[in-house]
């Protein structure tokens, strides 16, 4: 197949949900359709020993949540699909945001009984910030669910996005009878097979006279009313609004029983596009451009303890990657070869010879890449837009228990900071024996501690600090000693030596600005 056709058949999307909404189950069903795995559930046992294909870190297994993203590729009906898994917890929304940067669309899984949960509101908001198409799968219809009207209303209000139900559920829980497919005006009935993990789907026309018997009088009448209401009052379906992230097509189904998954996948593939063009300061990069280009959206050390390596994940934005080819690392200002190019499937990695725009590849990183870096065919002068860093909201003072482990502590802390999982600050003029770590969500502290213990063999002491806001000092040649600050404001330095202030509240920021003429503060590092 030629490069153009290869790129054309790629679909790259992120999958996002609150923990337990069914992201792993839905992903597994997708992989089953693609033949990438043979048996659902084979990859996932009981909760205590839970280990899904996409969860590979020990801490994930222990807590049953994904804390890192991973990538899976599979083939389905001629498409080559890349699924980017995201951590299902708001404390990792920054990681999710970066992953979304590498995706062309997102699938959002919602538990039908819970709707948009408080814990993940922030995570989902991050999704709408990117303006990529968002497809919603309302899962677990085989269990008692909330009213579909309420669910849609909540999604619209919470996320500021319009919704368009592609199908409509008929009952829920033990009364779940299936869904009404709005495009085809047909019913897909749901019949449990005495086994909670499987159901049969049968298609019946809405005008079929036997339908009332199948659904029962009540559900049949409700369905007729619902259909009338939806067709009369609902939004028009508009593919353009879907593609620019203003309208989310919503599908109801049940991932566990495999009900509505394949129709969802098919509709989704029809509505999404092949890899999208990307913006750079030098203009738009066309994915079909012959020249290769990619950007780093994630760095992860020690994915495999035995290898002690560091992998930079890149999203290919244009052209074709070939093993051994020479590329320009734009930020590093030099030509390099991307070594050990690989594609991931949970724990297994495969060295690849070629990859195309839309694909994600992992390459060995000898410590030269940063998140947001561009690599491209030498001579192609481009630089992709950077990936913003979120301001940390929680701070801890951290030091190693055993001072003999200083080297490992510094290395581990630096590496984890380079991955973008934490931000590290020092006392003014201080060393690395004791640092201040800032994170976006407190679970990141647990991951940091766990990883230092397990990957670097360092035990640490952590002390919570009362700060929640951070500002970099932009004033050139600022004299820190003369700054007039509230007693609960702390002066620190980042790893690049720039000065910044940690505040406990907005009021202290206003105080600092009012009492120090000419002081310039910014929320982001430059
Ligand atoms: P997550 O990745 O979003 O965290 O969710 P995951 O797929 O792990 O699903 C969370 C739980 O919800 C699992 O149960 C899973 O079996 C169940 N589940 C997923 N989809 C459906 C569905 O459509 N209907 C019903 N009834 N349940 C669903 P578990 O008890 O945690 O694990 P397991 O013992 O089933 O493996």
Instruction: Decide which structural class fits the backbone.
Output: alpha+beta
Q: Are there runs of 5+ residues with pLDDT below 50, and where?
A: 40-56
Ligands present: guanosine-5',3'-tetraphosphate
User: What is the CATH class name of the largest domain?
Assistant: Alpha Beta
Largest sheet descriptor? 8 strands, antiparallel
- Coarse morphology: globular
Q: Would you identify the CATH H-level superfamily of the largest domain? A: P-loop containing nucleotide triphosphate hydrolases
Helix content: 10-25%
End-to-end separation: 44 Å
Describe this structure as you would to a colleague:
The protein is an alpha+beta fold and 526 residues long. The protein folds into 3 domains: 13-73 and 86-271, Rossmann fold, CATH 3.40.50.300; 278-376, Beta Barrel (Elongation Factor Tu (Ef-tu), domain 3), CATH 2.40.30.10; 394-522, 2-Layer Sandwich (Alpha-Beta Plaits). The protein is built from 13 helices and 31 strands. The chain has an 8-stranded antiparallel sheet with strand order 27-24-26-25-29-30-28-31, covered by helices on one side. It has a 7-stranded mixed sheet with strand order 2-3-1-4-5-11-6, with helices on both faces. Residues 40-56 have low confidence and may be disordered. Guanosine-5',3'-tetraphosphate binds next to helix 2. Residues 17, 19-25, 44, 46-47, 88, 139-140, 142-143, 254-257 line the site of guanosine-5',3'-tetraphosphate.
Name some characteristics of this structure.
about 525 residues; alpha+beta; Rossmann fold; Elongation Factor Tu (Ef-tu), domain 3; Alpha-Beta Plaits; 3 domains; binds guanosine-5',3'-tetraphosphate
């Amino acid at each position: 197949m030629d490069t153009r056709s290869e790129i054309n058949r790629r679909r790259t999307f992120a999958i996002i949900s609150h923990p337990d909404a069914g992201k792993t189950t839905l992903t597994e069903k997708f992989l089953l359709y693609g033949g990438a795995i043979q048996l659902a559930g084979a990859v996932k046992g009981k909760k205590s020993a839970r280990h899904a294909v996409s969860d590979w870190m020990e801490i994930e297994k222990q807590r049953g949540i994904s804390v890192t993203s991973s990538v899976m590729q599979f083939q389905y009906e001629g498409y080559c699909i890349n699924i980017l898994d995201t951590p299902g917890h708001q404390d990792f929304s920054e990681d999710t945001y970066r992953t979304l940067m590498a995706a062309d669309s997102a699938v959002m899984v919602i538990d039908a009984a819970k709707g948009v949960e408080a814990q993940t509101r922030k995570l989902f908001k991050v999704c709408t910030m990117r303006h990529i198409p968002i497809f919603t799968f309302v899962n677990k219809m085989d269990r008692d669910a909330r009213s579909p009207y309420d669910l849609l209303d909540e999604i619209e209000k919470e996320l500021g996005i319009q919704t368009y139900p592609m199908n409509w559920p008929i009952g829920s829980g033990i009364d779940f009878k299936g869904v009404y497919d709005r495009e085809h005006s047909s019913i897909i009935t749901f019949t449990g097979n005495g086994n909670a993990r499987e159901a049969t789907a049968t298609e019946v026309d809405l005008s079929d006279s036997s339908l009332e018997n199948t659904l029962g009088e009540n559900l049949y009448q409700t369905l007729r009313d619902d259909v009338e209401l939806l067709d009369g009052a609902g939004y028009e379906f508009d593919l353009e609004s879907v593609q620019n992230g203003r309208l989310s097509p919503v599908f109801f189904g049940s991932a566990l029983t495999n009900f509505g998954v394949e129709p969802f996948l098919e509709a989704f593939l029809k509505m999404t596009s092949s890899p999208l063009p990307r913006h750079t300061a030098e203009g738009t990069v066309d994915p079909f451009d012959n020249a290769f280009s990619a950007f780093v959206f994630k760095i992860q050390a020690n994915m495999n303890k035995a290898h002690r390596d560091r992998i930079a994940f890149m999203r290919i934005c244009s052209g074709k990657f070939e093993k051994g080819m020479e590329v320009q690392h734009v930020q590093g200002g030099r030509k390099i070869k991307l070594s050990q190019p690989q594609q991931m499937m949970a724990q297994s990695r495969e060295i690849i010879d070629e990859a195309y725009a839309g694909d994600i590849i992992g390459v060995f990183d000898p410590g030269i890449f940063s998140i947001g870096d561009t690599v491209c065919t030498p001579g192609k002068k481009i630089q992709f837009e950077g990936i913003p860093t979120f301001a940390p909201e929680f701070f801890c003072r951290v030091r190693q228990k055993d001072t003999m482990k200083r080297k490992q502590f510094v290395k581990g802390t630096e590496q984890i900071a380079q991955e973008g999982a934490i931000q590290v600050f020092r006392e003014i003029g201080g060393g690395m024996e004791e640092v201040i770590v800032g994170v976006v969500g407190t679970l990141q502290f647990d991951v940091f501690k766990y990883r230092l213990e397990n990957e670097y063999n360092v035990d640490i002491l952590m002390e919570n600090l009362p700060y929640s806001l951070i500002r970099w000092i932009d004033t050139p040649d600022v004299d820190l000693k003369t700054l007039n600050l509230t007693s609960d404001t702390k002066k620190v330095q980042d790893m690049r030596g720039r000065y910044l202030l940690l505040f406990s509240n907005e009021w202290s920021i206003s105080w600092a600005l009012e009492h120090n003429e000419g002081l310039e503060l910014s929320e982001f590092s430059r």
